[in-house]
Design a protein that fits this description.
Blueprint lengths: L7 H10 L4 E3 L4 E7 L3 H18 L4 E5 L2 E6 L12 H15 L1
Antiparallel strand pairs: 1-2, 2-4, 3-4
Length: 101
């Protein structure tokens, strides 16, 4: 069963609450790049996010090179062809809380 896609107003609210995240994929995703001191810090961040993602049953797309981690959030079963959902908003908030420490 498809997950409800966020409305344009809900997407703007998400971006205003999480200004470090940017729209991607023609508004169907949000992305954020994180820079850490070294690979160990980046890997630790990814491990913490992985545990949260598993608990929330919503998994990010990500790319890691040394101390940089690029995270993209989208819901593949949102709407008719995928897009942003409340799952993405929840995970973005959780990721921001990890970084804020």
């Amino acid at each position: 069963m498809p997950v409800p896609e966020l409305t344009a107003e809900e997407v703007q609210q998400l971006l205003s609450q999480h200004p470090q995240w940017e729209l991607a994929r023609e508004g169907k995703a949000i992305t954020r790049t994180f820079q850490f001191g070294d690979f160990s810090e980046a890997w630790g961040f990814m491990s913490r996010v992985a545990l949260l993602a598993e608990a929330q049953d919503h998994h990010p797309e990500w790319f890691n090179v040394y101390a940089k981690v690029e995270v993209t959030l989208t819901t593949h079963d949102a709407g008719d062809a995928g897009g942003l959902s409340s799952r993405d908003a929840t995970l973005a908030r959780s990721i921001d809380e990890i970084v804020a420490g």
